[in-house]
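User: Some background: our group keeps a shared notebook of sequences we're curious about, and every so often someone picks one and asks for a predicted structure to add to the entry. Today it's my turn. The entry only has the sequence so far, pasted here. Could you supply the structure so I can complete it?
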Amino acid sequence: MRLGLQLSNLTYPGGPAQLGTDLGNAARWAEDAGMDSVWLMDHFFQIPPIGRAEKDMLEGYSGLCFLAAQTKRVKLGTMVTGVTYRHPGILVKTATTLDVLSQGRAWFGIGAAWFEREHQALGVPFPPLKERFERLEETIQIALQMWSPNNGEFVGKHYHLKETLCVPAPLSQPRLPILIGGSGEKKTLHLVAKYADACNLFGSPDVVAHKLTVLRKHCVNLGRDYSTIEKTVLTIYNRDTSIFLKQLDEYAQAGIDAVLFSLPDASDGRVYDIIGKQLVPHAAQLRTAGR
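Assistant: Of course. Here's the predicted structure to add to the notebook entry:
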């Protein structure tokens, strides 16, 4: 099992003037502790229940490009980009830029979007859920075409691109891995089975085990090899180490390959000693059920 750090609470004691230093420290500490990946949310306001909208929040891809320069090994991605925030062609170019500048360490994390308040506040269209899922599928199709030798036209229901040119191409081979966030059983997990290299779920180990059973059924129906999908879960580490270690055991038994977690204060360097000495070694010796 692998561990990843999600940097979600960005309101640190040092304030905005110290935020770049604190963020870079957190990513480097996570890397030095042996963690596999570092993730930023892709929001423009802070989200509930983490904090009030007025709390500090950074634009996700700008932050990740900054972290690419601060680190050498960890994978980097958004957890996850709302499909509504950027035109697909621009989004794919942005994610590819991160991959090139990080020397092939980017994930393409994406979902159907949900935080209506920031859409309304910033004037971003927020279509009904059905349309957002249609746009999500088309965006993934556009990404796959832009990361292929096909530079031609894309014509979909919602998007029309005259050219799908993306130069330089990703350094990740054969392309950026795609992670779809969300646990919806009918649409989200179906899209995971159809397109994604990884899913990101949330909930207790029992809930996650059920979601993975649903995902497996979608894979069977689509003729997809279930084992080729990396199964990840998002949770919180509140510094109760014994409970968290037990939780890792339970997620491994449920079929999870990677646990991604956030911290109440990622700028507190003391926690990374525990992560490196206890959490990472424990996770490394866990064998995911079904693997």
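Suggested note for the entry: The beta strands are 2-7, 37-42, 75-82, 108-111, 154-155, 160-161, 178-181, 198-201, 230-236, 258-262. Residues 103 and 138 are 27 Å apart (CA to CA).
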